[in-house]
Amino acid sequence: MIRVVWLILALSLAACTTAPDLRPDVYIRADGLLQHGIEAYKNDHYSRAAQHFKQALTLYQSIDDERGVQLAHFNLANNALAYSDFKTATTHISFLEQLRVLSEKLTRRLLLLRAKFHFAREEYAEASRLIKPLSVDLAVQPQPDLTLLATLARLEVLDSAGKKTDWLERFQAALNRLETKDEKQQAILERILGHLAFKKGDYEQAAQSFSRALMYYKKQARRRGIAACLKKLADIELAREKKVDAVEHLNKALKIYRWIKDDYKAGKIEKRLERL
Description:
Layout: H1 25-42, H2 46-62, H3 66-82, H4 86-97, H5 104-120, H6 124-138, H7 146-159, H8 166-176, H9 183-199, H10 203-220, H11 223-239, H12 243-259, H13 263-275
Helix pairs in contact: 1-2, 1-3, 2-3, 3-4, 3-5, 4-5, 5-6, 6-7, 7-8, 7-9, 8-9, 9-10, 10-11, 11-12, 12-13
């Protein structure tokens, strides 16, 4: 399963100025907890992130701050998906779906969050269906949303057996127009190209693409990306009948999934290793 790169973490903090923050202390503490949670999330400390988000949620609930409550639930759902805790993610997504009033921005984010949930479960057809309405916006955006464009390209290749590449071509073109290389998106592009080559049976090209993506992720210290690439490189080596190399890649990925406490993915790798 490839890592989905959407980071649907929204935080409306007070503007950073030289003037003191004169808001009541509870707002400052709640926003601060959300920020601490985001930092923990970025460093793959998901248990710590969940703790910060829950504390922020409690504070927002204590003052009936609806937007703060919504943001905390969004963050808790995303954090749960990072280590495949689908039960917890479902709880927070269900809460958000029951809300009568969401801003247009948060409504879009909820749609992306639901798509991300199905993406993480490798239910690509449903993820594609959910995200399709958002693709209309790309036609009128002066600067395309690269995260959305990347997701559409990934789903296109994964859901259509690699037969369609319209979104992939648009994603590549958007990256080529950037003045400075975006290594995060470049890693995603390499993974998409790797999946496409693998589906075509071009294992050498697939291995090169995933190796380049792995290099980008190691440079950025992105553990989930590293593990996903290692797992796919194992698939490639098995297809090339190189069992020893495949087992080595799987064992490396397993150590990472255990570190981030992703029991779901770690369990799937353990079962694969038992069969090899």
